[in-house]
């Protein structure tokens, strides 16, 4: 689809992270196979993954949160280009300042990597009983299981936080997690 390619090109040219093709294909197939209809996305960026998820089924409704105003405006434009304003509700705010009452079939975490544990803890109350939390970027370009010591302090910090998140998921008493080695590393977490 040409319009999706334009978003992909824009993301690449402006150094905006969007899901890798394998990852987004896995996510959209998962949504289709598990009949997911109500999604919360933490980290909209420019709306790419929200649009891809919404296009799976015309009954899907998405709430997505983005704190960067420039990306939020670009996401709004992209969502409008696909006529999805009635199905994708984008909120301009730091996710930690957003309190939602509704519950979701899927919570997709793809925002500040260093905050994954806090996002998980904050929004797990919004997960339907049989819902799923999917987290992206757990491999972080091969660095989580590779050599990252030569990178900047910032990158090292992100890798350490992602390793902590992975351990948090593995040791969680309330949830069980399956780690999928696809795209940039995906975790699928469900209540035990």
The number of distinct β-strands equals 7
Cα end-to-end separation: 39 Å
Numbering strands along the chain, what is their spatial order in the largest sheet? 3-2-1-4-5-7-6
User: What are the secondary-structure elements, in order, as H or E?
Assistant: HHEHEHEEHEHEE
- The helix content is 25-40%
Percent strand: 15-25%
- Give the overall pLDDT as a whole number: 94
Q: How would you classify the helix and strand content by structural class?
A: alpha/beta
- Regions with little confidence, pLDDT below 50 for 5+ residues: none
Concise overview:
The protein has 192 residues and is of the alpha/beta class.
Description:
It is a single chain. The chain is α/β, with parallel strands linked by helices and 192 residues long. The protein has six helices and seven strands, in the order H-H-E-H-E-H-E-E-H-E-H-E-E. Strand 1 (38-42), helix 3 and strand 2 (61-66) form a beta-alpha-beta unit. The longest helix has 18 residues, at 153-170. It is globular, with a radius of gyration of 16 Å. It starts with a helix and ends with a strand. The model has no long low-confidence stretch (mean pLDDT 94).
């Amino acid at each position: 689809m040409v319009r999706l390619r334009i978003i992909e090109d824009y993301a690449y040219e402006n150094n905006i992270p969007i899901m890798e093709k394998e990852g987004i294909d896995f996510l959209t197939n998962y949504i289709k196979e598990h009949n997911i209809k109500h999604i919360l996305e933490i980290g909209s960026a420019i709306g790419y993954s929200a649009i891809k998820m919404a296009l799976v089924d015309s009954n899907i409704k998405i709430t997505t949160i983005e704190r960067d105003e420039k990306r939020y405006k670009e996401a709004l434009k992209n969502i409008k280009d696909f006529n999805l304003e009635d199905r994708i509700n984008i909120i301009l705010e730091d996710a930690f300042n957003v309190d939602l009452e509704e519950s979701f079939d899927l919570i997709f975490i793809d925002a500040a990597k260093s905050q994954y544990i806090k996002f998980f803890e904050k929004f797990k109350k919004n997960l339907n009983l049989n819902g799923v939390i999917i987290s992206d970027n757990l491999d972080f370009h091969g660095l989580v299981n590779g050599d990252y010591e030569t990178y900047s302090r910032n990158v090292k910090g992100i890798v350490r936080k992602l390793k902590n998140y992975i351990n948090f998921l593995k040791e969680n008493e309330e949830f069980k997690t399956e780690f999928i080695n696809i795209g940039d590393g995906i975790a699928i977490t469900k209540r035990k």
